[in-house]
Amino acid sequence: MRRSFEGGKWPDVDLYAAGGRGDIKTSSTPELERLMAAAGENGWSAVGRPAWLRAHRDRIRSLFLVVFGVEEHTVYRCLVTAVLDDGSGGGFTLDMSFDDFNGLPDVTPKELTRLAHLYLARFPPVELDPAQQEAWERLEHPE
User: Fold this and answer.
1) Cα separation of 52 and 21, whole Å?
2) Angstrom distance (rounded) from CA 38 to CA 19
3) How many domains is the chain built from?
4) 40/13 Cα distance (integer angstroms)
5) Quick check: 80 and 93 in contact, CB under 8 A?
6) What would the DSSP string read from start to end of 51-116?
7) Residue 103 placed within a domain
8) pLDDT-based confidence at residue 2 (cuts at 50, 70, 90)
């Protein structure tokens, strides 16, 4: 549930428009733990996944954060994507202050390339066309 704030108007965040909030940030695991604790201490609803983070903390290789909304006048609702050592991982929401988000480092070109490769590798293959399937089966089972 959103809490109201003085002024009564929610700020707009357009993530993908020119000048919008489309930046991608990174974080260390200890910093993410601090941000999750701060979310809980401030009474914000999205506090990350503390138990998941504790269970996977030694396997985390990359953390990416993006804003996808405004929860309060000075609080972003962020999507955190954690990439584990085997390329798997998960995503969860976390509320954080504008200042905390702005203070995180921007993703580097190398990290962005890794993220793109992970994303692209997750698409399922498109099935063969019928003619291709027939040709494949002839190769697999020649008569």
Assistant:
1) 27
2) 28
3) 1
4) 23
5) yes
6) HHHHHHGGGEEEEEEEEEEEEETTEEEEEEEEEETTS-EEEEEEEEEHHHHHHSPBPPHHHHHHHH
7) yes
8) very low
